[in-house]
Hints:
Elements: H1 5-8, E1 16-17, H2 24-28, E2 36-37, E3 40-42, E4 48-51, E5 54-57, H3 60-75, H4 77-86, H5 100-103
Parallel strand pairs: 1-3
Antiparallel strand pairs: 2-3, 4-5
Helix pairs in contact: 3-4
Amino acid sequence: MPRHPAALAGLLAGRRATTNKAAWSWVTGVAPAGASDNNITWVPSARWTVDGRICTSSSVAAGIDMMYALALEAYGPAVADAAINLIEYALHQDPAWDPVSVVHKVPGADGSRSLTSCVAPAGF
C-alpha cells in the first residue's frame, strides 16, 4: 500500500507519479517499476511527472525543475528563464530522467544514462 499523502487522499488514482528516491520503497509500498498500486503507475526514473492537473516530483530540487517547466509552458522562456536564473539554479530539464534513482537503487531505474550530463543554466 502506498504511503504518499496524495496517494492516500486518492489524488493519484489512475495517474502516473513519482516520489523521493531515497524513500521509494516506503512511499510506494515497494511497487516495482511501472507497476500500478491502487491504480497508480509509479515511474522510478522520473524526476517529475505531469498527468493532467496532477504534478509530482521526486525532491525539493526536482520540484524547482518541475515548476520551471510549468512556468515555461504558462509564461514563456523570457519569464521562466529570468526567474530561474535570478535564483542561480542550474536546471535539470528532462522530466523522465532522475539520476538519483540510480544512486538509491530504485527498482526499474535506468542505469544506462549519464549521471553527470543532466544540468544547465536556463536558456543555454
